[in-house]
Design brief:
Layout: H1 9-61, H2 78-85, E1 88-92, H3 101-106, E2 113-117, E3 122-125, E4 145-150, E5 168-169, H4 179-182, E6 185-187, E7 192-195, E8 208-214, E9 217-220, H5 223-230
Antiparallel strand pairs: 1-2, 2-3, 3-4, 4-8, 5-7, 6-7, 8-9
Helix pairs in contact: 1-2
Length: 232
């Protein structure tokens, strides 16, 4: 009698079960790592684009962030520097915020200027603090010209990257304090308090990052943003 070699149904089901358990354990982590890498790449791209914009502004118009004197969309405003060299498709202000679902979805303050770019990037900042952007702006709240960039626009999760599993929700909006640049405790544009430096174990890289404007540079502001660019 000829003997047939092969797997029994029970063996096949057990093997498939093991594969399913392993997949359930590893796929969420792989997806999270992939999303984090995409956000990091997009943030670096945005920083590069804004830095190129101010470099071109200096070369062609002799104007950089330190020359900002206007808090509106007039000449010598942050809006004008970026609009001249990048393609802004929509501007949301306090007057149009109530009718703009995208800005509300992303959680930006109503008093902010929120700029939507053609590549999907969104930049939101408090215009009253965005002038004479040098290393230290005594006229600005928190001492710096800061803003929040959202690398994928209205698409979720619309959360600020951070270095803590647990954060304290506050009430301040529109800025990241100077403390967040050097260490200690800080408050971001959504009133969230952060403490401690970023590392692989606590970094939560999501789709929003803080940046600071000064002179001829746009730099990462805060632990999570610096972690993406400098890995520290």
């Amino acid at each position: 009698m000829k003997k047939h070699l092969g797997f029994t149904l029970a063996e096949v089901l057990i093997t498939l079960g093991i594969i399913g358990v392993v997949a359930a354990m590893t796929i969420p982590t792989l997806m999270s790592n992939t999303n984090s890498s995409e956000m990091k790449t997009a943030f670096k791209k945005i920083l590069s684009a804004m830095n190129q914009a101010v470099t071109m502004s200096v070369a062609l118009n002799y104007v950089d962030f330190a020359d900002i004197t206007m808090t509106t969309t007039a000449d010598d405003s942050l809006y004008q520097i970026l609009n001249d060299k990048m393609h802004i498709v929509k501007l949301v202000t306090s007057a149009t915020y109530a009718n703009d679902e995208e800005s509300r979805t992303m959680g930006f303050a109503q008093s902010n200027y929120t700029l939507f770019f053609a590549d999907g990037m969104v930049l939101s900042y408090d215009p009253t603090t965005m002038h004479h952007c040098t290393n230290y702006n005594v006229a600005a709240r928190g001492g710096r010209c800061t803003a929040i960039v959202d690398v994928n626009g209205k698409r979720k999760p619309n959360k600020l990257s951070n270095c803590m599993a647990n954060m304290n929700q506050g009430s301040n909006n529109g800025y990241v304090s100077a403390d967040n640049q050097v260490g200690g405790s800080a408050v971001d544009n959504k009133g969230i308090s952060h403490t401690g430096a970023c590392h692989d174990g606590n970094a939560q890289i999501i789709d929003q990052f803080s940046v600071v404007f000064k002179g001829q540079q746009v730099l990462p502001n805060g632990y999570a943003a610096r972690y993406v660019l400098y890995n520290n």
